[in-house]
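Human: If only I could read backbone structure tokens as easily as an amino acid sequence. Take your time, and here it is.
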Amino acid sequence: MRRTSRRLGQIYDEAYAPCGLKATQYAVLNHIAKAGTPKMGELAQTLVMDLSALGHTLKPLVRDGLVELRVDELDRRTRRVLLTEQGVQTHAAAKRISNKMAERFDLAFGREAAAQLRQTLDLIASDAFAQALLAQADD
């Protein structure tokens, strides 16, 4: 699984290079775009990352002016993440690449097999699967 993940990471990093992004950075931008202004904790949970890893991933996006961190108006201990105007434009360009890559993946892997694979990967990424796997490890 790790070898496959590294290979796909290389392929997608190369695809997103014209936008100046890595695949992980696109995933972050995409989740922010879908959520609007998520709290850091919510975003980390959605991405299946811990807060420190998310902070590390956000640093270059903030530095490059794509993402902004703001203190939550209702809970000043919480920070919200949002796309800047430049971030919105970069996300739109990267989204076109993502759609193109999804189409290429479906053609290379087969549409039905790709749909089944995505469903399986969603299950593996779920909290329920992690809990079931960890419960079996305790036996």
